[in-house]
Write a structure and sequence with these properties.
The chain is mostly helical and 113 residues long. It has five helices and no strands. The chain has two domains: 32 residues, no CATH class; 63 residues, no CATH class.
């Protein structure tokens, strides 16, 4: 076994049901790139969101906090720079990290007013 830490990818998609993906048995949808990732990785068969809106749910997952603990209540709430995400902890462990997509980490337009 190698001493090199394993690489990993956390992939979250908005508005898609697992039943629509080949990785979960759908014979119609063609997702070859995702299928290649799945073949060498782990697929969660049971996963639950802890908030009914996507922004607070993503922020909760990234921070490890329940939405009410982090102040994540709606999709317009920014992710505060004062709350470290699991990507910050991975970086401290020597990983190269990249966040891409809807992270709600940009300054809100309301803050500039």
């Amino acid at each position: 076994m190698s001493d090199k830490p394993m690489d990993f990818l956390v992939f979250q998609a908005d508005q898609v049901t697992a039943r629509a993906l080949a990785a979960y048995g759908n014979p119609v949808c063609k997702t070859p790139a995702l299928d290649r990732v799945v073949e060498s990785g782990t697929v969660f068969r049971n996963a639950y969101a802890n908030y009914p809106l996507c922004g607070p749910s993503r922020a909760s997952m990234m921070s490890g906090l329940m939405p009410f603990q982090g102040g994540f209540f709606d999709n317009g709430t920014e992710y505060p720079a004062t709350i470290p995400s699991f990507a910050h902890y991975l970086r401290m462990l020597g990983y190269q990290t990249c966040l891409s997509g809807k992270m709600h980490s940009r300054p809100s337009s309301r803050a500039a007013s």
